[in-house]
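User: quick one, fold this
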Amino acid sequence: MKEKKTSGIAIVIRVILIVILVMILGFILLVMCSPDETGKENGGGNGTAEADWEATEEAYQTGENAGSKAEVKNKMNRTTGKQYGNPDTSWTVMLYLCGTDLESEGGYASLNLDEICQAELNDNVNFLIEAGGTREWQTEGISNGMLTRLHLEDGRMLIDEECDSSSMGDADTLSDFLRWGASAYPADRYMLIFWNHGGGSLFGVCQDELYENDALSLKEVKNAIVEAEVPFEVAGFDACLMSTLETAETLQGYAHYLVASEETEPGTGWDYTKWLDFLAENPGCDGKKLGSVIVDSYMEKCDSIGEKSMATLSVTDLTRIPELSAAFRDYSGELVMSTQNAGDFQAVIREASQTESYGERSGTDGTYDMVDLGDLVNNTGDILTKNSEAVLKALDEVVIYESHGAYRSKATGLSVFYPKYIDDDVYKAYEEITDNTAYLEYASIVNGEWDEGAWETAWQEAYDTQGGADQSTGGFFDSFFGSGYSGEESEENEEESETGGFVGSFFGNDYSENSVNLFQNLSPVQPGDEKLEYEQFLDDDNILNLNITSGLSQIKDVRFRILFEQNDENLLYMGCDSDINADYDKGEFSDNFRGTWITIGGEYVCAELIDSTDDYYLYIIPAIVNGEETYIRAVYEFDKEAFKVLGTYDGADETSGLSGRNIHPLKNGDKIDFIFYSVNLNSDDDEDPEEEITGSIVWSDDTEMLDEEMADGRFYYMFEIVDIFGNETECDPVIMEIKDGEMYTYEM
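Assistant:
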């Protein structure tokens, strides 16, 4: 049988085809193995963001890498299709300037308006202002009792129109401004800035003092932006406490980047001249780069006025929020499950109580229940082991730039609501802004208001409404900043279409009814499950001892309070501290009182411990500074074993609950009167103590805050026990008498 011979031409063709196939496979492998080109600049910046962006801009200007994957990646603005780095990009920046008491009493809005007018803008940048919400403007030309719309031109503010007065705490007022701005000054990219007081996730932003301090809730902010249909490259809050997970979740799908602060801000706010000059010179920049410039210039400004130590500011990539939300919902489920075991629940509560928290309410009412998300998860990670790493990983990808001062050392860029000082009002406020069923149930358990039947229903309703629901943002925003979109045109992000809602992330794709049943049949630890019992005694060394004999698993904290006996009828409250000897495992505590107390400039002060971390204690001290009642903020640093006065802070507005921005460093010549609280032993328990001034100083650079020996007198020392539900139990006081420099302790 003869073999069929292959012609020479056929052989050549085969060889050519094989070579072509090898080349194609090699090219595919080369593309697949190319390194990721995205970057991250946490910690105040290391120059990477600037270098990356400048390289991008140069590539567009010179035409290098045309048609390559690098050209497509991370450079398309979905609002207009104009590429990042394009020098012809136009911006419209909208400043929602609610002046309130910051302007009428301090002129802070006008200070920022002066900075804005000093910026050297060009035709690429429209800067618009809606001014209102204050009784009196310090800037000439802005009418009181009206809403004034202005734009910046050649360093001057020109009025576009004046509108009838309406509350800047109303969603319709905000939405109308946004629609007008986008219509009158259309641009390739838009930026929105809220200027005013902020109250974190629970209390919102922009209180209008003309309308009973009406403020925008997060829900109202979202409704206004949805109604206006304006997508933002950057949404910024030049306000206190607004860099929160809840804020980010509210804005996800409606803005690309969030710029905001976890902590309170000084009234002087951002450095508008510097970042506006940058934007005018670099209109092709993206929100990440612009945000980093805002952060750096703000921290420099805070440093120049002595306010950097407590300052925070960060840039968040909102397109990455779905992954973080999903991880946090899983963490929330594990958090709820920890309440089934008294030991685990107590451990979580105690670790969470050490988390860095932000904002101070007036007096001793604690904080705004806003804590650093990363610090919370780090502190509880040894107990809640299943999902902590996923949260931290997602958080690291979400917060792309952040900076913080020395006394906000745990800040990671985003805070989150945590029921540290929860009551019914706080719980209801959180219920209004969340659909995280597991976290809400945890808050109800901590609040001591958990109801089995109510939560069985709540879980079923959550499953019914979210089990098969479409989790996308919906509407026109999906085409701009859709779920999972990070500014990159890649198959990976096209597949990330779910926000990781409660059902999708917690129960998995099968939406198992068994999982629903698990949460419908919880039996969490409840107040009163274990009765608190304790004994007190003086040992042979006259040291006061406290032993908890029952209910130890429900104890969160033990601290002490001290009062000075003025006379037979009146006691002077001196403060609260945690400087005791403590063994929480055994439930054994003893006093560490050395006959010393905190002084400033040689005068004793009423010092209240309001926050503690592994690095420092944070105190507030009531005082009158230059005739104005306020609180002095101070820290005790463990590594330096020393106190430091940080400045003054007026606390929260009593009506709106929003945080004040009036933070001031003390200056040479400031007159300080120290306030104490006098308690009458014969008065009713519900009668408020009277304020009393016992000492005054004039501040100077040499003024010191020390722990000094106390003068002769009788002092009432008492332990206070705080359980995991926030209930406080005051133990019987003992008398600690100092006489001729010697201290004697005896029971009453």
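User: anything notable?
Assistant: The longest helix spans residues 8-32.
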